[in-house]
Amino acid sequence: MAATVTSEPIAALSGPVPPPPETRPRVLLVGTAFAAGASVMLFVGLLGVYLSLRTQAIADVGTWIPADVVMPLTQPNMMMLTLVLSVVTIQWAVVSIKNDDRPNTYLALGVSLLLAFSFIVELGYLYSLMKWNLAVTPPQATLVYVITGAHLAMLIAAMVFVILMGFRALAGSFTSRQHDGIAAAALYWHVMVAVYAIIWFAIFVTK
Known about the structure:
73% of the residues lie in helices and 0% in strands.
């Protein structure tokens, strides 16, 4: 007599498949993109004023930076290199959290912050080398300090962002499936570095 085959296992396999776990809406990433865009618009306006005045001054008197002003290029070059290295380390943090590699995530975030602090030290040294006659307060000095100072504020905001996301990562808020906080901090960091690249070329390279 042939054995009867039950259909219970087949019925169990063909049952309803549970839905995948819900993911959080990427509000932080979208908000960061808008904030980064607003920051870029600010610097576009500032650099537009700077370049316009420089073009007019060169057309009128043949020079923009006074002859007695020291504006070296070595320090801005090193600052640019420092930020380029930080782009690698901040992206290292994103890749690490995607792989649930928390030790490397924390290490990458820490190295990024260390490089940003090095940039601040280099900027302070650059300020000490630029001998502007502040008693006269020429527009060149005002614009250079406003633009670089605004970028310094953007850098500090990026550092605070990374620190906050690092604490959230320590608390277990981010995993390989949900890592929008680290990605948002990296997005703002990349934009900050891109802004300095434009400043570096427009102010320090072309002068």
